[in-house]
Design brief:
The chain is α+β, with helices and mostly antiparallel strands. It is built from 19 helices and 42 strands.
Length: 871
């Protein structure tokens, strides 16, 4: 063992001699020694590298390494060198690397090491090493593992900080540990829960390394991204998920069963059939990491604070600096650093008196230009600001920018330097010169043509926040009138009235044709009976009574009862020879009462059908009163408005979104707009457009909402599906129910005018015709628009909205394929097929739609609740 270590050291010294020759050829400069570990965070029993870098110096002897008791050396030294030529000077850097491992978790400090360089003893710096358990995904040291466990890839989340401020951007890394005996065939995309965080898309590009943990060798693929928190508190990051296709070594017995016939002795040692593997499709899941998110302090918060958090620097240049009053100046502002650049406002001029300021244009100088690149904390953006001086100024005033610094834990006002100018007054016009000149000559005024006047153009630079004091909630039991039986029952009323009028008209014509109808015959017989009942003799009274009974019954025989008694008395008095006793006054009164009841009963039968119809319609049209809501969400809505007015946009978003997550949900266009305002103020354009579009589904005629959507469209130029005809687009002026009510009103006018005309057959026909025409004009277009207007479920079916920035559509389900079109935040797509973490979508386009593949994490469904609630 000693001889091998000695030979290894001799080999290293020989290589150092070769490097020394290179060092002699470089220009003389002081040597620099630095030590570090890679990576800086590890888990117990993971092999990492301890590296000493020597720049521009000759190593003459290796250091005698010293480590804490919990850290041990696992391998000898390995060397590598790098030669650079900078400004004509050659620089040689030598790296000495040792493998080390820690046996337990904790925070360790590796002490300084002494190394002889160019004949002098030089000391390295101390190095800090953090050893964590890593969430328990790795098997404990010394524990027996099955073959499946040994072949299982492991996913780990690593955060740059464990305590951050709200909206602060921090790095987040997801590392995939693949056992060395496993072959990786295909990788999917990393997916992570984003309800509490804004997480930049993880690219498929990764950094590759290798390590040994508990004696098991792993290939490590590290994916880097950034995140920022949307709310405060102790939050959970993750878990992260990843789909992958791997080739794992096949089980020895399975290999043997696939080669030899049944019954063959197969007691072969492990590894006897090397190289055989089987494909497996796996989904690996990482641990969750707790992070503490602090709120930004209220003390010292600037009035125009936009929510930018980070560390920024700003520079300003102007061109030209030699100019005349009225000449435009182009100021280039460059803001660099780390933080949430999306929340930065345009730097404002400290003193704008005497300057005409035009809207600034923003562009990216350094940073992630392509979504396939790894997101970085370091970025640099530029602003082009055009100024026109209206008076002589010695310089361009400074520009100012406000942000919150996590390192200083306070708000910082960043101010650029003033830019000196050499400015001359504007030249005097000819008219002014002639007016100011003295002399006896006549001064001739030169008319100056007024500048052309153009129509002012809209320049919307911000959203309009004007929340309604009351929220108009969508009823969970909202029903389309087209499917309401009560609605159609009510529509039967004018038709029934018209039918009833026609029936009466027919009856009236029959009465006129037959001189007297049934009712007329009854009334005539009754009038004849009444005329003789007072003073007529018994014979005449009984004869009139018998005629009335015969009129009411016709050929139907009269049964036993008072009527039969009257007929018997009539026959006894008028058709027998015996003298019948005279009728008493009481007997006459009873007979009159009996016949009067008969009259009323017969006439009542004529109205039975009409009365029954009206009762039937009334019973069908009765609707149950809706139950009172058990609880009102108005207080929560008012609290959300108050938080918006205070500038607590995250709190307002949380309150408003809590209403949408209740069972049943409390939804309204006003709540959706509150969430859209909060998302916009936090720089989340995609989700702001999503919530505004949801609000537009419920209240498409809201002018403030449409203006805000127009503003976001002018900023992002998102894509939306339009209607295929102007008539269909015009149908959205009213809801389907409103169109149906208008059509029903037109039908009522038509049938009521017909009913009027039938009742008043002898009167004027002008007004019924006019009302019928008006009803027709209302009913036909309203019915057509109701038929053309898409139903609520059809408006949102399979529609999703792009909520992430820098999203592209691809020709296949991989980011390495060709692109179709960029999808700005707020763009709509129609999902056609899902394949793993990808969606095949239809994209709005002109003159025809496009199709491509979009990552599932980049889009959000337009409507996630019961589609019957969409008007």
């Amino acid at each position: 063992m000693k001889s091998s270590v000695l030979s290894s050291q001799l080999s290293v010294l020989s290589r150092l001699a070769v490097i020394a020759v290179l060092l002699l050829t470089s220009s003389a400069s002081a040597a620099v020694v630095r030590a570090y570990v890679q990576p800086t965070t590890a888990r117990p029993n993971q092999v990492i590298n301890y590296v000493i870098t020597v720049q521009d110096g000759q190593v003459q002897s290796l250091p005698n390494l010293r480590f804490p008791l919990q850290i041990g050396q696992t391998s000898g030294v390995s060397t590598s060198q790098q030669i650079q030529i900078i400004n004509g000077r050659q620089s040689v850097s030598l790296q000495l690397s040792w493998g080390i491992t820690a046996t337990e978790p904790g925070e360790f400090v590796i002490p300084t090491q002494t190394i002889v360089v160019d004949g002098q003893s030089m000391t390295t710096n101390e190095v800090k090493l953090t050893v964590e358990n890593g969430g328990g995904n790795f098997p404990p040291n010394g524990q027996a593992q099955t073959q499946d466990d040994a072949n299982q890839p492991i996913l780990q989340i690593e955060l740059g900080k464990k305590e951050i401020y709200q909206s602060e951007v921090v790095p987040v890394n997801v590392s995939l540990y693949v056992p060395r005996q496993v072959q990786l065939r295909r990788l999917g995309l990393i997916e992570m829960e984003k309800s509490d965080f804004a997480i930049a898309r993880f690219p498929q590009t990764n950094e590759q390394s290798s390590t040994v943990i508990d004696g098991i060798g792993y290939y490590v693929l590290t994916f880097r991204s950034t995140l920022s928190s949307l709310r405060t508190g102790d939050l959970k990051v993750g878990p992260a998920k990843l789909e992958l296709l791997v080739e794992v070594p096949a089980d020895a017995q399975q290999q043997q069963r696939g080669i030899f016939p049944p019954g063959f002795q197969q007691n072969f040692p492990p590894g006897f059939f090397p190289g055989m593997s089987e494909p497996r499709k796996l989904e690996v899941k990482s641990q969750q990491v707790t992070i503490k998110v602090l709120p930004m302090p209220a003390e010292g918060k600037p009035a125009n604070f936009s929510g930018a958090v980070g560390e920024f620097q700003m520079t300003a240049t102007a061109s030209p600096t030699d100019l005349t009053v009225g000449d435009p100046i182009s100021v280039e502002l460059a803001v660099s650093g780390t933080g949430n650049f999306d929340a930065l406002n345009t730097p404002a001029l400290v003193s704008n008196g005497g300057w005409k300021i035009y809207p600034a244009k923003r562009y990216v100088i350094e940073g992630q230009m392509d979504q396939n690149q790894t997101p970085t904390l370091e970025r640099k953006v530029g602003y082009t600001q055009v100024l026109v001086p209206e008076a002589v100024h010695p310089n361009v005033p400074p520009f100012e920018l406000n942000y919150f610094s996590p390192s200083q834990k306070k708000y910082v006002t960043l101010r650029s330097e003033a830019i000196p100018l050499n400015m001359k007054p504007a030249p005097v016009t000819a008219a002014a010169e002639s007016a100011g000149a003295g002399g006896s000559g006549t001064v001739t005024e030169v008319p100056v043509a007024p500048p052309p006047v153009t129509d002012p153009q809209a320049d919307i630079t911000d959203i309009l926040v004007r929340p309604s004091p009351k929220s108009h909630w969508i009823a969970p039991t909202s029903t389309l009138l087209l499917r309401s039986s009560a609605f159609w029952t009510v529509q039967a009323v004018p038709v029934g009235l018209f039918a009833f009028a026609c029936m009466l008209a027919v009856a009236r014509r029959r009465k006129e044709a037959r001189l007297a109808g049934r009712a007329g015959e009854l009334r005539a017989a009754w009038e004849q009976f009444e005329s003789v009942s007072g003073s007529a003799s018994d014979q005449e009274f009984l004869r009139s009574a018998a005629q009335f009974i015969q009129t009411t019954h016709g050929i139907t025989a009269v049964g036993e009862g008072p009527l039969k008694a009257i007929l018997d008395r009539y026959e006894a008095t008028n058709f027998t020879a015996a003298h019948a006793p005279a009728l008493k006054a009481s007997e006459r009164g009873e007979m009159q009462s009996t016949l009067a009841a008969l009259m009323r009963q017969t006439l009542a039968k004529l109205n039975v059908i009409a009365i029954a119809f009206l009762l039937f319609a009334s019973n069908l049209g009765a609707a149950e009163a809706p139950k009172a809501a058990s609880a009102s969400p108005d207080d929560v809505y008012r609290d959300a408005i108050a938080e918006i007015e205070k500038g607590n946009f995250t709190r307002a978003q949380y309150l408003a979104e809590s209403l949408t997550k209740k069972t049943p949900p409390h939804l309204s266009a006003e709540v959706f707009q509150i969430i859209g305002h909060a998302r916009y103020r936090q720089g989340d354009m995609g989700r702001a457009a999503l919530w505004y579009q949801r609000a537009q589904l419920l209240d498409g005629r809201n002018p403030e909402l449409n203006q805000n959507l127009r503003h976001i469209f002018e900023r992002t130029r998102y894509l939306v599906f339009g209607e295929d005809s102007p008539l269909r687009d015009a149908s959205f002026a009213l809801t389907t129910n409103e169109w149906l009510i208008l059509a029903a009103a037109g039908v009522w006018l038509i049938f009521l005018s017909f009913t009027w005309r039938v009742f008043l057959s002898q009167g004027s026909t002008t007004w019924p015709v006019v009302i019928s025409i008006i009803g027709l004009i209302i009913a036909v277009p309203s019915g057509a628009f109701a038929a053309l207007r898409p139903l609520g479920p059809d408006r949102v079916k399979d529609i999703s909205v792009v909520t992430q920035p820098d999203v592209n559509s691809f020709t296949s389900a991989t980011v390495t394929s060709g692109t179709v079109i960029a999808l700005p935040p707020g763009s709509q797509v129609r999902t056609l097929e899902k394949r793993g973490p990808w969606f095949y979508v239809e994209i709005p386009g002109s003159p025809e739609t496009l199709r491509g593949w979009v990552e599932a994490g980049a889009i959000t469904p337009l409507w996630t609740w019961d589609t019957s609630l969409v008007p």
